Amino acid sequence: MAIKKQYLKTKPVCKVTFTVPAEDAKKVAVVGDFNNWNPKGSLLKKLKNGTFKGTFDLPSESSYEFRYLVDGAYVNDEAADRYQWNDFAGAENAVIEI
């Protein structure tokens, strides 16, 4: 898994690219604070090499809890900036600092 951040000079936005290796998966989405944990509109595209990838514009100077939804199962990214316990989920969420 990988996270790439590209800060824009003209806007307070960061282009964040999420990459998830999941050859056997049918669907992968990234859900978090930035999209109200809704997988609609946050599906990653499956590439020929079996990796899922997607880029999203996120407002700068914030931190966001997120997880991947891989065929209905929540997965954290080991490349996250840190992790945050979530009482509602009863698990840790990955956190990205922008």
TrEMBL record:
Q: Which domain of life is it from?
A: Bacteria
Q: What are the GO MF terms of this UniProt record?
A: starch binding
Q: List the protein's name.
A: Isoamylase protein-like protein
- Gene3D superfamilies from the xrefs? Immunoglobulins
Coiled-coil ranges per the record?
none
Q: Which parts of the sequence belong to the CBM20 domain?
A: 8-98
According to its UniProt entry, this protein's organism is: Robiginitalea biformata (strain ATCC BAA-864 / DSM 15991 / KCTC 12146 / HTCC2501)
Q: Which InterPro entries match?
A: AMPK1_CBM, CBM20, Ig-like_fold, Ig_E-set
* A Pfam family of this chain: AMPK1_CBM
Q: What is the lineage of its organism?
A: Bacteria, Pseudomonadati, Bacteroidota, Flavobacteriia, Flavobacteriales
